[in-house]
Structures are given as C-alpha cells and as structure tokens.
Amino acid sequence: MIRHGSLRLRLFILILTPLVLLAILLGYWRYTVAQQTAQELFDDSLLSAGLAISRDVAVSEGDALSPTTRSLIRDASGGEIFYHVTGPGGIYVTGYAYPPAAANPSEQGAYQPRFFEAIYRDEPVRVLKMTERVTLGNLVGDATVTAWQRVADRNAFANELSIRAASLMGILLATLAFVVWFGVARGLRPLLDLQDAIDLRSPDDLSEIKRPVPVEVYGIVQTLNRLFGQVEHSINAHQVFISEAAHQLRNPAAAVQSMAEALRDAKTDEDKDKRIIELVSAAKNSATVAEQLLSLERLRQPTHQDQMDKIDFRAVVEEVCTDMGVQILAKGIEFDVTMPDSTISVSGDQVFLTEAIKNLLDNAVKHGGTKLSQISVALRSDGENVKLTVSDDGTGLSPEQSEAVFSRFSQLEYSEGSGLGLSIVSAVAKRHGGVAAINQVEKGASVTLQLPIAL
User: Fold this and answer.
1) Within the chain, which residue ranges are assigned CATH 1.10.287?
2) The pTM is what?
3) 323-350 core/surface letters (b: 16 or more CB in 10 A; e: else)
4) How many helices and strands in the chain, by DSSP H and E?
5) Is the Cα dihedral 282, 283, 284, 285 positive or negative?
6) Where is 196: in which H helix or E strand?
7) What is the CATH number assigned to the segment(s) 306-452?
8) Considering the domain 215-298 in this protein, what is its CATH number?
9) Which residue of 303, 328, 364, 434 pairs with 392 in a disulfide if CB–CB is 3.0 to 4.6 A?
10) C-alpha to C-alpha distance for 54 and 67, rounded to whole angstroms
11) pLDDT tens figures, 120-166
12) Segment 345-365, tens digit of pLDDT
C-alpha cells in the first residue's frame, strides 16, 4: 500500500494557500492605496496648516500664531510642518528663513495653492505655496505662505500605518490558519472514528458497516460494504468447494487404496492382472476428478480482457474430436462430426475451451447408459454466435433438469463420473460470455455450448 501525505495537511494547504495569495495581493493593493491616500491626507493637513498660518498672520498682523495653529504645525500628520510667510511687497513676516523653491515654477493661477517637491537643507520635502490678499496695518497686498514637510517623515508615518495594517492582516491569517487546522481535524473526525470501528473488527467479521458517515464518505463505505459482501461470498464458496472436493476425492482415494490392497493379497497371476487393471482404472478416475477440481478452481479466478486470445474455434473442436474420437469408436459407439468449411473465431482461452469440449464428449460417454450407440457433434454459426451441440441416443436429458445437471458434484443417476463435467462446461461458457443449455429432444440427450463470435 502506498501511503500519501496527511489528508489534514493537504486540506489545510489547499484551503490556506489561495487565502494567503489573496491576502498578499490585497495587502499590496491596500499598501499602494494607503500610500496614495496618506499622501493626499498629508497634503490636506499641509493645506489646513497653511490656511491657519495665513489666517493667524492676518489676524495678528504678523505678530504671532495662535496656540491651536502651533499645535497643528507641531502634531500634523506626516511630521512637523515648517513655514515661511511674506507680506505685501515680499516683506518677510514670520517663519523660517529661506524657504525651498520650486525647480520649475508653475504658471497656474496666482491665488491657487500649489504643491511641489523640493530640497531643503539637503533633504527632500513636500512644499505648499499659497498666496492670499491681506491687510497688514496700513499695507494692503499679497501675502505668501510657504509650508513644507520632510518627505522622510511623511513616508515613515505612512509606512507605520501600512505596517499596522499588515500586522492586523497577519494576525487575521494566523487566526484563520489556527481555525482551519483544527476545523479540518474536527471535520475529519468521522473518518478516524470509522477507522477505529474497522480496526476493532475481527478478521472473520465481514458484516456491513452501519455507522453514520458524512455524505462525502458514503460512497466509499458503500464500496467497502459491497467488497465485504463479495469477499464473504467468495470465502463461503471456497469453503463449500473445499468441503465438496474433499468428499469427492475421498471415494477415488479409497478405491485406489482398496485396489492396491487387493493387488497385494492376490493369490494368482490372473487375479493380479485383473487387480492391476482395476487399480489403473481407479487411479485414472482419481486423476480425472483432481484435474476437474483444479479446472473448476482456475475458472473461479477473474477474467481480464488481455488474457483472451482470438482462437479458431473450429480447429479446437476438430482437434478434440480427433483425440477423443478414437476412444469413443473403440467402445463400439458411432461418432459423427459436422462442421462448416470456414473458420469461426472466438475470443477466449484455448485451454478452457478444450476442457469444455472434452467434458461434453466425456459426459455423453459416461452418462449415456447401456442404450448409447451414437454420439454426434455439430458446429454451426448464426453470424453472431457459434453453437457447438453434442447429442447422443442414450439416457434422456430434459431442459427441466438443467439446474441439477450443471451443479457441481451432481448426478441424476449413479455412474463412473464425478458430477463435475457439465458444471465445468457451464463455467467455461460464462467465463467467455456465453451459455450452456440442454436442448429438448425426443430421444437421448443434447447439450449446446454457445459462445459469441470474435469481431
């Protein structure tokens, strides 16, 4: 048995992998959006600070900024805000000296706030420059507010927010992984319970599994139950076969022993010669029974299509009739064979087919009785099936006796046969997709072996 990895681990990976990939994609998208949103919020904060500075300058006429504005400048999102204010005529009013200037001055409206990137004290900064008309004392003119933040501070703040979001997502994924791992284990619990229940069974217990199982496992349990049933049927059949075989082999073995003892105790040469003939006959009968039992056992094995060969059935019949015809004629029985001129192909096992034909002829000889004087063999084809019929004029046989005739170790009347011949013929027919049947005739017996023709 090949053991694969843990089903629990496979399910865990299958469930969690797409979620992790999705989380990575969403995290990247969220990081990009968060960076863009943060920059927009920082710009809005910078604009708010610029407006507050401009208002305070106008209200205090350049003297001071209100505490609220100072707090806004100090604690603004994205880091501390620096500023520079000039009044009408470009007069310095308040703030830091030498504000950063734009590398490429814009031509947009004079009173429209403008954002740009610049360098201040060797550091990149984000700058807001806005102009408003104000009155400072007796002066009326344009006041320009320049406010800026370090880009590094803005990025650090945005990265901190992103790290927090990533940490939260990581915690959620870890929680999900924990839930999935133990959830899968709980979901697989019925399988483990089923395994425990099967482990507790004894080797002889092949009864159906009746435990409640999930729908996904129901088909497997049904298949197991069907397999258990087949195994139990096969074991019972083997036990019956062994019992019957032992019973059938006991008589030939006893006969051989009896003949051997009689040969040992023979007083004259004539008596010894007679006992030797009887011993040889008993040994042949015992060997025939053993061979038939082995044939029946081989026929019980499953058939695979690749074990079937395309066979000239006409040639097989002709060969068997040639071999057995000599023995039949030696008994003073007429033997007639009728076959078509062309070949007839079937798909099958030549050894089993030969065995079936021999048993048909042997059955006619052994069970024909004292009235037996003629045996005929007829081979014909109807285009789809080939039919081999063996008929005799001996003891009659009717279709109503089919069940008894084709059963193992069954004989309608006592004879020297073992009762296995026609059961082997029936088993060979089934193995090759055909059928064996007794024909209704006025006199004697007629048995037909029908097989499908190979295309």
Assistant:
1) 215-298
2) 0.46
3) ebbeebeeeebebeeebeeeebbbbbbe
4) 10, 12
5) positive
6) helix 189-199
7) 3.30.565.10
8) 1.10.287
9) 364
10) 14
11) 888 999 999 988 887 666 667 788 889 988 888 888 877 887 788 77
12) 898 888 888 888 888 898 888
